[in-house]
Amino acid sequence: MKATEQKVKNIFNEYMEQVSAGKNPSLLAIQKKHGYSESSAKSYMVTKTKTWEKLLSRIDDEDALQRLNHIMMNGKDSDALKAIQEMFKLKGRYPKLGGGIDKEIVELYEN
Known about the structure:
Layout: H1 3-20, H2 27-33, H3 38-42, H4 50-57, H5 61-74, H6 78-90, H7 103-110
């Protein structure tokens, strides 16, 4: 594995650990911590790499949707809900639409 790929993997893992813990991590700060320049970090260059895309593709949407369903039914776990939203944002599946509901997520959930 190339050093650049390892750096992206380290950033991804740190970010996902924080998301899994219910935190709201700063990808900007994590990138800078791992050596990205201010300008690269601000443009989120790490998210534009093939390594980042490959790592994101390994996350199963179905698991998040099942957890979301559990949260909706029980009215608890706001931290987990934030984590699910963040995961969908990372995968580019959570753009803001009118009313704050993402059509693609609704369609996924209904399927």
